[in-house]
């Protein structure tokens, strides 16, 4: 019998979606741990842990893309994998954080706002600037969370992909 199965390489979207979903779940857990413990999940060591997890997710997804494919990954393909990771994980994790702080416990968000106010007072900001800053922070926090998350995930991917790409020597370009 002849084997008529053709090799089908994974798409950047399929790998990115899978790792984006995994990263979203891990990000939600990393938000809940300090939130439940009464710490600020929006500032401090938790941001660095989240950054490390994001770097690991991009690296592992790109590795999977190469391992399950032909062993090669162009820079553009690596960025494509990271794009789908960001597009899935960032909105889901920000939406969860927003929902949690809006409907379950607004303590973490209020803690963040109080720390922002304390920092501005310590830096000698006038009261009018503090009030305006806090008002706009409340209005734009979640939008900036999504836009900033997408931007910084892709910025990390720009650097990571330099090291993870493996060009096919037989490719025409």
List keywords for this structure.
single chain; 173 residues; 5 helices; mainly alpha
Number of helical runs? 5
Radius of gyration: 20 Å
- Structural class determined from secondary elements: mainly alpha
**Whole-number total of structural domains:** 1
**What is the average per-residue confidence, as pLDDT, rounded to a whole number?**
93
**Beta-strand proportion:** under 5%
Task: Give a quick account of the main beta sheet: strands, pairing sense, barrel closure.
Answer: none
Q: Which residues sit in consecutive blocks of at least 5 with pLDDT less than 50?
A: none
* Secondary-structure element string: HHHHH
* Helix fraction bin: over 70%
Could you explain how this protein is built, in words?
- Helix 4 packs across helix 5.
- The chain has 5 helices and no strands.
- It has helices spanning 12-37, 45-68, 75-104, 107-122, 127-164.
- The protein has 173 residues and is mainly alpha-helical.
């Amino acid at each position: 019998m002849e084997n008529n199965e053709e090799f089908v390489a994974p798409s950047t979207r399929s790998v990115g979606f899978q790792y984006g979903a995994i990263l979203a779940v891990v990000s939600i857990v990393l938000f809940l741990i300090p939130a439940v413990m009464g710490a600020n999940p929006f500032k401090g060591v938790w941001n660095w842990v989240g950054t490390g997890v994001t770097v690991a997710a991009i690296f592992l997804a790109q590795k999977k893309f190469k391992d399950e494919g032909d062993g090669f990954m162009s820079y553009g393909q690596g960025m494509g994998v990271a794009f789908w990771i960001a597009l899935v994980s960032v909105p889901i994790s920000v939406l969860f954080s927003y929902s949690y702080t809006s409907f379950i416990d607004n303590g973490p968000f209020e803690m963040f706002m109080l720390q922002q106010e304390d920092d501005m007072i310590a830096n000698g900001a006038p009261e009018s600037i503090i009030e305006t800053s806090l008002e706009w922070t409340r209005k734009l926090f979640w939008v900036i969370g999504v836009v900033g998350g997408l931007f910084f995930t892709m910025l990390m991917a720009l650097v990571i992909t330099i090291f993870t790409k493996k060009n096919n020597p037989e490719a025409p370009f």
